[in-house]
Write a structure and sequence with these properties.
The chain is mainly alpha-helical. It folds into 3 domains: 4-139, no CATH class; 148-246, no CATH class; 254-330, no CATH class. It has 15 helices and 7 strands. The chain has a 3-stranded antiparallel beta sheet. Strands 1-2 form a two-stranded antiparallel ribbon. A two-stranded antiparallel sheet has the order 6-7. β1 and β2 form a beta hairpin. α8 (148-163) packs antiparallel against α9 (174-187) and α12 runs antiparallel to α13 (271-282). The chain is elongated, with a radius of gyration of 31 Å. The termini are far apart.
Length: 331
Amino acid sequence: QLNKTEWNKLKTTLSIIPCIPTNQGMKIPNESYIPSSILSSDLPIIILNVPQNLTDDDDDDKQSIIENMENSISAEFLKRLGCRTVNVQSFVHAPSLLTNSTISNSHTMKTLIQHLMEERDNMSEGDLHALKQSECLREIGVREVPDLQKLIDRIIEEHNEQKKESNKEYKLPIALKFLAENFQQHYSKLWKAAKIKRPFLPSISLSKTIILSLSEEVFKDKSPLCATLLPNVVQLFEENFNISLLGVKDCPTLTTAFDILMEKKEEILNVETARKIFAYMNELDGLSRTLIERVSKLAFIPLKGNDNLMKPSQVFIHPDNSTTTTSSSRL
């Protein structure tokens, strides 16, 4: 029994060695085809004794294989070495080889698609790579990657499915990983025009729950004002490209932070939270005369023993540097 590392080493070594016996001589694994009724006889078919999947009606075949089982080699083993199971071009260019009568291209494609559906979980890496390179599949409408909007929908679906099982550790949606890995090649030019308006980035909310956020409404750095991207989300994207291409920033500008504060003031502002919030805003860039004039007219300062938020002009700096006074003096 080989472990993963040993398998990879074996595959790498054999991938360049003609070590598989076929009806056309010794071939490398990627050029060798496991016997199947849908393969053209022109292909290099493996001549080893490879047991086939049998139905209840295959009594004669069953007996034959049982008699030769001692000399058999499993199809799964050959697939792991990189041997092939399907050849798309044999369907496209030589359909007459597959049956005794001429068949239409549409029927050929139907046969191919049916076979791909049946074998989608059993294909070798060589098969999958060849399918991705096939112009034939593109011509019949098979996309290389999902539509961006549908991919976002899938991210949301996977997230919601996980949230139903709240006791389990949160795992990043597979579709999100696909987006990160394929963004540069397939989605970067579409991103701005797509104007994604559905939250899709896993984040930590102010209440410490995992939510989905829009790229322009979430930030990398921890904040007492808004959601923060999960660290493994940042890591996932940064391994593939700069996450700023999605519109995600490290932190908001002071103007943006103040807009968020005013929008959520009834929910998050009180005497206890004000110190932390105003200290955070004190570190942000973007203080301007225009912002100062705007801020001076708005009520956003909490006072102990007062249920109403106050304007800067309505409060005074207290000598003990309380939360309220520190906040008002900064703004």
